[in-house]
Every structure is written in C-alpha cells, then in structure tokens.
Amino acid sequence: MKKAKLAIMLLMAALLAASCTGNAGNTGNTETGGSKGSESENAAEKTQSDKTAEPLVTGIDGTELTVSEEYLLELASETLEILATGDWGALGGSVHPTQGLAFVPYGYVQEDAVRLGIGDVKAIGYDESVRVWGQFDGSGLPIEYTFEEYFDRFIMSHDFRHAPQISIGRIIRSTVQDNLFVFGNGAEFVEFHFPEGEQYGEFEWASLRIVFSPYEGDLYLVAIVHEEWTI
Fold first, then answer.
1. How many Å apart are CA 152 and CA 24, to the nearest integer?
2. CA triplet 152, 157, 162: central angle to 5 degrees?
C-alpha cells in the first residue's frame, strides 16, 4: 500500500514538473515574439518617418518665410517638377522673354554661358546637338555634351525635389564667388542642397539654384545653376 501511494506521489510530482516547464516555455516564446514585433514596428515607423521628413527651409534672414519667399519657393519647386518630368513646353513657357535661360555647371556664371530662348527650350527634348556648356573643374577640358547628357550630369545629378535643405535668397555652400547679380536688379533664387553623399560624405555635396528675374511685373526663369564640391 505504501509502495502504491509512493508511486502515485511520484507520478503527480512528475506531471506538475512537466506542466511548469511547459508554461515557462510558453512565457518565453510570448516575450520573444513581443520583442520582435516591437522592433519591426519601430523599424517601420522610422522608415515612414524618413520618407515623410520635411526639408529644412530657411529664408534670406534665417527666419520663417515671408509671403514673397513662399511664392518664390512655390515657383522653384514647380520648376524642379517640370525638369524631373521633362515637360519642356512648360519649362519654355516660364523662361525670361528677353534674357533667355542660362545653364551654369559650376556656380559662377561665365560670360559665354549657354543661354537658350523660349523656343529653343521648348524643343530641347528633341535636340541632340552637342554644345560646349563650360569647362570641367580640375581638367579644364570643355564640357561637350548633348542636352540629355548635360541634364543628367549638371542639372538632375540628384533628385533635388527631395533635397534635405532649401534656402531662399541665401547660398548654403559654395566654392566660388557668387555673381548672380549679372541677371539684373530684382533677380532672386532658391537653392536646393544635399550636404553630403553616401560614399564620400561632405565631399559629395551638391546644390541646384533656380534663378528668377522680374519682367513686366512677374518673375521668369533666367538660370539653372549647378554647384558641387570641386578641387
């Protein structure tokens, strides 16, 4: 009889031990799953945050934008969208009627910078002629490109629609002396700036300045100025 009771007690102890082990395992799995779920949710939130991050936008005095600065930013942003989508008819329609549109690869506006009139800009998407757009920094060799080649290298070298820094009327960074005054009194610009690149950091910074000049009471596109880190 005593042996039977002892056997029953041992069996109950074994069952109780097995039950506790199973519960402990379930608790551990639940905690691990919860931790992984939290990490996934945090990663998803960060990714979404990166996509929707607003650029740093500053006016000429570093404070909030005035009404005129907001209008200038709207014009420049529309111009970037037109460039990105290749709507050359719309781009030509925004070009200054008398000064045309100047293309500047390295910040400083040279006297012999390429300038195209309204009609030429509207047809630029079909123009396969090679022009000399300036000189390469460092080598001094002529930039002999078609418009498509120049566009890829010196206009949309980055998708400036998503630039993290934007400045109205103030140059963020430059390696040359600014001479945008050549476009006359009242010329205004917006700079779209990438402060660094993925491979070489700040040695890959780049800017695109969209320059406007007034004509008969309105602002017209007068220059697209590209600038980047140079030797």
1. 61
2. 125
Write phi, then psi, for 139 (nearest 5 degrees).
-80, -30
Residue 202 burial (C-beta neighbours within 10 Å; 0-12, 13-18, 19+): exposed
State pLDDT tens for residues 32-67: 344 444 444 444 443 343 444 677 888 777 667 889
Q: Are 156 and 83 in contact (CB under 8 A)?
A: yes
Place of tokens 């009404």: 67
pLDDT digits (tens, 9 = 90+) for 179-190: 898 998 899 999
Residues 38 and 66 in one domain: no
Whether residue 7 sits in one domain with residue 76:
no
Do 34 and 138 lie in one domain? The reply is: no
Same domain, 135 and 37: no
The CATH number given to whatever domain includes residue 177 is: 3.10.450
| Cβ count near 154 (within 10 Å) | 23
- List, in sequence order, every beta strand (DSSP E) within the chain: 56-58, 101-104, 114-116, 131-135, 142-145, 165-168, 188-194, 206-215, 218-228
How far apart, in whole angstroms, are the C-alpha atoms of residue 103 and residue 127? 15
Based on the structure, what is the number of domains in the chain?
2
Place of tokens 């700036």: 193
Structural domain of residue 39, as residue ranges? 1-51
Q: What is the mean predicted confidence (pLDDT) over 166-193?
A: 90
Mean pLDDT of 3-9: 41
Q: How far apart are CA 61 and CA 121, in angstroms?
A: 34
**Alpha-carbon gap, residue 125 to 113, rounded angstroms:** 19
Q: Which two tokens stand for residue 76?
A: 């420049």
